[in-house]
Amino acid sequence: MVVKPEWLRVKAPQWERVGNVKEILRDLGLNTVCEEASCPNIGECFNSGTATFLIMGPACTRACPYCDIDFEKKPKPLDPAEPEQLAEAVRRMRLNHVVVTSVNRDDLPDGGAAQFDRCIRAIRAASPGTTIEVLIPDLCGNWDALATILQANPDVLNHNTETIARLYRRVRPQGSYQRSLELLQHTRAFAPWVYTKTGIMVGLGETDAEVRQVMDDLRSVDCDILTIGQYLQPSQKHLGVVEFVRPEQFNAWRIYGESLGFLQVVASPLTRSSYHAEQVRALMERFPRERGDRLQAVSPPQSAIKPSHAES
Hints:
The chain has 11 helices and 8 strands. The longest helix is centred in the middle third of the chain and has 14 residues. The two termini are 30 Å apart.
C-alpha cells in the first residue's frame, strides 16, 4: 500500500453540510465530478456549498487509465430536463460561480456542445449574477461544436491538457496534445473576451523541463489560467503514481508560470482543475474584458502551434 506524504492529507469533511449539498443533487437527479472522479477536495468544496456539475453522464465514452469515471461505449441518451434542473440547483445553492463539466460523449455528432449551450443559457436565465465556467472535452476537434458553446457566452472556457506530450499515448490514448492546444487557440480566436483555462497532473513520470515546456506551449496560445496538481491513483486498476511531487516544486512552477504571463497559476499537491474556481471572479475584476455579442471568426483559424515535443 502506497503511503501518501503529509502534504496530501486532508481534513475530514463536515458531513452535515456535505449531506445538504448531496440532497439537492439527488433531488434534481444531478451528478458532480466531485463524486464521480473521487476528488480529494470534496469535503472542503461541499462544505462551502460549491460543486462542479457533471452533465451528460455519469458514464464516459473514453476509458482514460488515470480517470475514475465509468466507461460505456453507448451511454444513455441526453436528458432534456438536465439544463433546467442544473439551473435550479445553482439557484438553490445560491452560487456566485459555477463550474459545469461533462464526460466525453464521442457518440454524439457535436460531442454534447448543444447540451452545454442549453445549460449555460438556463443558468443565465435563473441566476444572471452567477459567473459560469465550462470545463469541456476536446470535442474530437469539431470546432463548429466549440463555436456553439462559445456562442452561449460562458465567462471561462476550461479544457484540461492533463499531461505532457510524451506521456499522452499512455495517459490519454484517445486524446491529442496538439488538439488540446488547438482548442484553446481557437477559443481565443473565436471569443477573445472569454478567459481560457487548463490544467495538468504531475507525478506520472514527467520531468521539470517537460512541465515547463507545456507551460511555454500554453502561453503560445495565450492561455490565461493554469492549474497544476498531483495525480492520485483512484484504484489498483488505474495508472500508478510515479512520484509524489514536493510542494516546493509546485511553487517553482507557479513562479515560472507567472513569469510567462499567465493571469493566474494555481499549483499545489491538492490543486484540481475546478478547486477554488470561484477565485476567477476576483481575477475578472482585476483583468476585465468587454464581452462581445458575436464570435470573431466564422471558420476556425489556421493553427500556428508548433510544440517542441511530439506526442509519443
